Amino acid sequence: MGTTRVEIEVNGEAKSAEVESRMLLVHFLRDVAGLTGTHIGCDSTNCGACTVLLDGKAVKSCTVLAAQASGRKITTVEGLSANGKLHPVQKAFLDKHGLQCGFCTPGMIMSTVWLLSFNPKPTEQEIRRYISGNLCRCTGYQDIIESVKRASDSMTGGR
Amino acid sequence: MEEELSSPEYLVRGKGMYVDDIRLPNMLHMAVLRSPYPRAKILSVKGGLNGNELKGGVESVGEGATASASETEEPIFGTTSVNYAGQPVAAVFADDLYKAQDLLESVEVDYEPLKPVMGIEEALSMPPIYSSLQTNIMSDKWRGKEFELENAPVVLEDRFFNRRVATNPIEPRGLVASSDGSKLTIWISTQSAHSIKEGIVGSLRLKPENVRVIQADTGGGFGLKGGMYTEYLIAAYAAMKYKRPVKWIETRREHMMASRPGRGVVGKMKLFADRAGKVLGVKGEVIVEGGAFSGGMGEFASNFIAMQVTGPYQIENAHVRAMSVFTNKVPMGPYRGAGRPEAAFFMERMMDLLADDLKMDPAELRLRNATTGPFKSPTGLEFEASKPFMEKALREMDYASKSKAGNAGLACFVLVPAYQPGESCRIVVKDKKIRVWLGGNSHGQAHDVFAKKLISEELGVDVKDIEFERGDTDMLEDGVGAWGSRTAIVGGAAIVSVARKIKDQIEKEFGKYSPELLLSNQFDVYNFEKQKGSMNSLGANLATVELDSLGSVSVKEIDFYYDIGRPLNMDAVRGQIIGGAIQGMGQTLSEEIAYSQDGQLLTASIADAGVQTAEHIPRFDIRLADSRSVLPHGAKGLGEAPTIGVPSALVRAIERVSGKRVRETPVKAEMLLGLVK
Question: Is some CB atom of chain B closer than 8 A to the CB atom of A61?
Fold first, then answer.
């Protein structure tokens, strides 16, 4: 099996390794970079548990090759909190009970961060639409939607 | 509403320790070779770890466990035959997952395909799958007593079917097994560390003291993760054989083909009534598609459903046959509700049919058959006075006005939690810290919050001084599991019992109790708080829907009126209710595990299986009865209530807007095309 040299900036840190060419980005993040906050929930780009930001845009890292991410910037859930302080989206999920088992949560949070990055005040319909690529089996989504609204409010000062 | 922090901060930081996050030095990754055929003879297997070496069967443990006969018991590996597409035939091991997947190609299996038995009706008409049996009937029992009412003024018959549904927690199954030569340690995603230990010890014939099972953070369960699976035994055996840790993580595709799904039940019902709407008797036949092997929920469920089929009504005559049958599909397992939703579906459908036949309001019909005092039905279902409960429910859910528009459906039910035999708890106080272990393992329900709250109430300590520990069989000598809407009830009672024992100990020793005396001394108290009898409770749902010309149903609102006793944590209660309601909505509208007639899985991804997304969720109006159970902390059951009530309420609403009698779940758009009124 062929190998490829990849260099990826993960959460602001350069990570480089010689990996199998077929290695998926999610396995690079989990097994090479040691960042296990990005989860694997399906093998078919359906559940969104593996969502990360690739150059600021949400992607499902189970459907991106590590080689495709070479030379680009990745943000994972571990990269959100600055100096240990929770990102407003993380805090909103805690405050509004936006998680139960927590397995879909990192992916949900990353999709939310992406949505709020280009649409700081989404409508409820927009929130539902933008997180519909992330499946949650525990919450029934209502408290996740409330969490996104709370995050939007806190990041825009409620304006 | 009181703000309660019920979600641990480490999970939003991505610092959870789920089983796939565990990495041990020198660890092997396991991949499983599965049968592509639903039914075949195996002429030979060469390569990998297979049944020529690892023989034996999978012991049934956990929810709905039953002992099993030899030929129909699930083998660890299919060796001379396979009986469902996805059944493990061999396993391979490599330093990483990619290499393990590659190694699957090194295994050679010679199959001779046979005609599979792919449904309940086929099971009853086709020759037996197992040559030692005369038929494909796995179990056949009766509940209630025979009666004769054929001349009743109203006699109605119908047949219903809830198709199979995958449990689909977002974290699939998985474990890491490691052996130091004498002791086997298993880290696993589970609802019950103790059931897993019992299954490993029993199936692999190990000594209990040589096996330790530790619960990893568990990413949802919904019934899936309480029982034993052959992959767990293979990984455990391999860890001992190769003297290296072994990790196995299920793929979603494997989940669809080899994780035990729920539902898959036919109900044939016959109702006898008078013209005033009083139900005089019920006859029925419950047939569960048990799947390929006996032992466990597939065998247990039919009798459990038959017991509950009379619903919250005063029905004096009932006689119900309970059958489970073998088919060439993965065995049935417990899925949230585990028989309770099917029983409610069958009875509530008949009540609606009777209401329509008599041109009565369905709520009025239900009230006419409700009880003014405690009742035990001929099939054995016990419940408290259902009439005052239903009257209150109809007011709280505003049935009178919401039913006028012709798009609402009502359902009433009894929740039968898995109350017996109780649950265990251990509390250790040392170095000013209180640590608590509970027999049933939390997998998203925030058991930690109510555990801390109850200990704080009983012992007057700050919740910050309390640590809630994950399941660990070396730290807690016995335990049952978290399923069947039970943990707030029996786990809560166990916590209170241990806290009170500690308090008594302090009072005896020091002549008085204070939190300071507690924290400045050391205690280590364990108790298995036994429970007898039942802790059944009542619930009701009202659902309103709209239908478009393409047959697409949109659910507008779901109303709840549940008796959950004393709510221990409102955030978690709301989360359980809404999460369960969306699962119930999924079962009703979209979720299904489907096979082709020749036995191949058609729903191989989580999207194909129809799990609901955030896009179309309705409004929710949640009301709780003002109530307490007889237990010291006042809790009753909750977790499965929405999966019981919501499907029955929803199908009635769909029936109202489409004018088409609904007999099956899921109700797909193609069934409702062009029916909009």
Answer: no
State how many domains chain B has: 3
With respect to residue B99, please indicate whether it lies within any of the assigned structural domains: yes
The verdict on residue B594 lying in a domain is yes
CB spacing of A143 vs B578 below 8 angstroms = yes
B105: left (phi over 0), alpha (psi -120 to 50) or beta: alpha
Displacement of CA B114 from its chain's centroid (Å): 32
Q: Which of A142, A144, A145, A147 to mutate to test the interface with B (most CBs of B within 10 A)?
A: A142
What is the C-alpha separation between B561 and B538, in angstroms, rounded?
Answer: 9
Using a CB-CB cut-off of 8 Å, the residues of chain A touching B606 are 41-42, 44, 46-47, 135
Residues B454-513 have pLDDT tens digits of 999 999 999 999 999 999 999 999 999 999 999 999 999 999 999 999 999 999 999 999
- For B58, the token pair is 């999978």
Give me the pLDDT at residue A159, please.
65
Q: Which of A23-27, B61-65, B229-233, B517-521 has the lowest mean pLDDT?
A: B61-65
Partner residue facing A77 (CB), from B13, B21, B581: B13
Fold for A3-78, please state it.
Answer: Ubiquitin-like (UB roll) (3.10.20)
Using the structure block, give the residue that is written with the tokens 């919904």: B222
φ/ψ of residue B323, rounded to 5: -120, 145
For residues B484 and B544, membership in a common domain is answered with: no
Distance from CA of B17 to the nearest CA of A (A): 8
Do B237 and B315 share a domain, yes or no? no
Domain final residue, candidates B249, B277, B306: B249
What burial class does residue B155 get, using C-beta atoms within 10 Å of its C-beta: 0-12 exposed, 13-18 middle, 19+ buried?
middle
Interface confidence, given as ipTM, is 0.97
Q: Does A72 touch chain B (CB under 8 A)?
A: no
Residues 87-126 of A with CB under 8 A from B: 90-91, 93-95, 97-106, 109
Q: What is the pLDDT of residue B187?
A: 98
Which of B12, B21, B442, B574 has the highest number of chain A CBs within 10 A, making it the mutation to test binding with A? B12
Return the pLDDT at B676: 85
Q: For residue B1, how many other CB atoms are within 10 A of its CB?
A: 6
Q: Are residues B484 and B580 in the same domain?
A: no
Are residues B170 and A137, on separate chains, in Cβ contact within 8 Å? yes
Q: Percentage of residues in chain B with pLDDT exceeding 90?
A: 95
Average pLDDT over chain B reads: 96
How far apart are the CA of A37 and the nearest CA of chain B, in angstroms?
Answer: 4
User: B497 and B378, same structural domain?
Assistant: no
User: With 90 as the cut, is the pLDDT of residue B388 above it?
Assistant: yes
Tokens 């709780």, residue? Answer: B624
Contact flag B16-A102 (C-beta cutoff 8 Å): yes
Query: Is B162 a member of any domain?
Result: no
Range of the domain at B446: 422-530
pLDDT tens-digit readout, B121-136: 999 999 999 999 999 9
Q: How do the domains of chain A map onto residue ranges?
A: 3-78, 88-155
What per-residue confidence (pLDDT) applies to B62?
82
% of chain B at pLDDT higher than 70: 99
Q: Output the six-digit token pair for B582.
A: 């969306």
Nearest-5° Cα angle at B398, B396 to B400:
135
Q: With an 8 Å Cβ cutoff, are B614 and A131 in contact?
A: yes
Which of B258, B217, B295 has its CA nearest to residue B85?
B258
pLDDT greater than 70 at residue B420: yes
Closest-CA distance of chain B to residue A93, Å: 7
Express each pLDDT in A81-111 by its tens digit. Answer: 978 899 999 999 999 999 999 999 999 999 9
Instruction: Measure the CA–CA gap between B605 and B252, rounded to whole angstroms.
Output: 7
| CATH number for the domain formed by residue range(s) A88-155 | 1.10.150.120
- Chain B neighbors of A35, CB-CB under 8 A: 14
- Chain A residues in contact with B96 by the CB 8 A cut-off are 31
